[in-house]
Amino acid sequence: MTDWTVRFIDYPQQYQKLRNEILEIVDTLLSRGDVMLRQQLHDFEAHFAEFVGTEYAIGVSNCTDALYLVLKAAGVGENDEVITVSHTFVATLAAIHRVGATPVLIDIGDDHLIDVELIEAAITPRTKVIMPVQLNGRVCDMERLLGIAEKYQLQVIEDAAQALGGKYKGTKAGAFGLAGCFSFYPAKLLGTYGDAGAITTNSPELTEKIKLLRNHGRLPDGDLAGWSFNHRMDNLHAAWLDLKLNYVPSWIERRREIASIYHQYLGDISEVVLPPAPMEEDAHFDVFQNYEMEAENRDGLRSYLTECGIETLLPWGGKAVHQFPLLNLSDIQLPRTEAILAKALMLPLHCELSDAQVRYVADCVRGFYARNSRF
Ligand SMILES: Cc1ncc(COP(=O)(O)O)c(C=O)c1O
User: Which of 31, 243, 262, 305 could staple 310 via S-S, CB 3.0–4.6 A?
Assistant: First the structure.
């Protein structure tokens, strides 16, 4: 086993910082028996909606379920098409598949997000939804995307699993279309100690429907509104998330600082293409859920960084969703997505990193290319 000098993510360190508050929550909730659908969930939902800038938020079991529930509640099903991307976690497409709809995959742009210029050409009479994936903490050009959606009367559902706090022209991810779907998987910017997710929306009707759908269709009088399933968020997760939400603004600031250090130390290396630097005046306010760069001789660099004790990741293990043969999507060709995935490498970026560790990672990347330079 590698003795890591820089971990990709450091759960124990983050826990140590919040240990007393986390344990106090466990003690309070369990002493009271507040375990399911209690006040802590309602409080978190209110605070989360306020943070994102929507009227409502609904806590659910995870983001995969959130995407499924929104599609289901929006009446998307068989014979419908959903336009999205292949450079995403399989969850995005799994939710579309689960409601019986067809994912229509389009290529990505230089910033690794949906290329909005390709959307119109992918629209057919069966298209119902555009589902942008706000990847790596960046929000795509939502102005253009919403304009297209309005022109063709399509719903917009954001996969905002990776973009909590990310903004486009001042509006936060999850606040643009019919709904936004968030993940609180432990590795996420706002992560819990297990699985959880949320849906944000301004629609009271959608909120009502999803609150029923997440809990077997159970009505307050005990009757059932119809068939559904269990997609509830546990109360403990809600209370921990409510606590951690207070730290999110400072965590975002730190993530942007780290991205700036990477930019400063790696910006002049011709063998790498970095994500856009965090700039206040930009239309995009990125939160750097991941630091995903493109690298020449990516696999060589990754091995070298492992030797240096630096843990890195390949997005989705190195393949876009359509490149997994058993999903039956392999007749699709997305040249830009495939080219980017062949070079994409994620460097460690989390709030427990010191500046010295970030510079060490950057020095090692520099060292690799200096050693392997042909000149
Ligand atoms: C882009 C994207 N969509 C959806 C999901 C699914 O989230 P969850 O694990 O909470 O179901 C993830 C989680 O990694 C993700 O990164």
Answer: 305
Instruction: Quickly state the pLDDT bin for 374 (edges 50, 70, 90).
Output: low
Which residue is closest in CA terms to ligand 1's atom 14? 89
pTM of the full structure: 0.97
Cβ neighbours, 10 Å, residue 300: 14
pLDDT tens digits, one per residue of 115-150:
999 999 999 999 999 999 999 999 999 999 999 999
Q: CB under 6 Å to ligand 1: residues? A: 62-64, 88-89, 91-92, 133, 159, 161-162, 183, 185, 195, 197
pLDDT digits (tens, 9 = 90+) for 329-368: 989 999 999 999 999 999 999 999 999 999 999 999 999 9
Per-residue pLDDT tens for 63-101?
999 999 999 999 999 999 999 999 999 999 999 999 999
195 CA → ligand 1 middle, Å: 10
Who contacts 333 (Cβ-Cβ below 8 Å, separation ≥6)? none
Average pLDDT, the chain: 97
Sign of CA dihedral 74, 77, 81, 84: positive
- CA 47 / ligand 1 centre spacing (Å): 21
Centre of ligand 1 to C-alpha 88, Å, is: 8
Superfamily of domain 248-371: Aspartate Aminotransferase, domain 1 (3.90.1150.10)
Q: Which ligand 1 atom minimizes the distance to the CA of 195?
A: 10
Atom of ligand 1 nearest to the CA of 67: 4
Q: Of 226, 229, 182, whose CA–CA distance to 201 is shortest?
A: 182
Domain ranges in the chain are 11-245, 248-371
Task: Report whether CATH 1.10.540.10 matches the domain 11-245.
Answer: no
What's the 181 CA to ligand 1 centre distance in angstroms? 9
Distance CA 319, CA 82 (A): 21
